[in-house]
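Support request, priority: normal
Reporter: lab tech (M.K.)
Component: structure prediction queue

Hi team, I submitted a job for DNA-directed RNA polymerase subunit from Coccomyxa subellipsoidea yesterday, and the status page still shows it as pending. I've pasted the exact input below so you can check whether something in the sequence is tripping the parser. The sequence length should be 117 residues. Please let me know if I need to resubmit or if it's stuck on your end.
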Amino acid sequence: MTTGPKLKFCPESNDLLYPKEDRERRKLVYHCRNCGYQEDADPSNYCVYRNEITHTNKERTVILQDVRSDPTLPRTRDVICPKCAHNEAVFFSASTEEGMTLFFNCCKCGHRWRDYV
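Reply from support: The job had stalled in the queue. We restarted it manually and it finished. Here are the results:
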């Protein structure tokens, strides 16, 4: 069984010490909100975990497969589908290397296309 980080208390006021970033020194410190006491955090007790999830191109395609049924995405009637000429599409934007891109998905045939903004 592992134990988590222990609570730290101010030696001057006995109040709880809170973690805070010291931007000038680029360090994690604990500080007292009552009296201003401050001490450096011990790096061996850092309790920070960063989980980075990366998706393959195939996974991204599956994620974007049926956005037509997503009620949270906006719809527009100001575009014409290049495949079936229907005038309603769901759209969303994303930042790419080229800049901002609008992605459209035809509500009738499901055709997907993009427009670089």
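Strands lie at 17-22, 27-32, 38-40, 75-76, 89-96, 99-106, 112-116. The first helix runs from residue 57 to 63. Let us know if anything else looks off. Ticket resolved.
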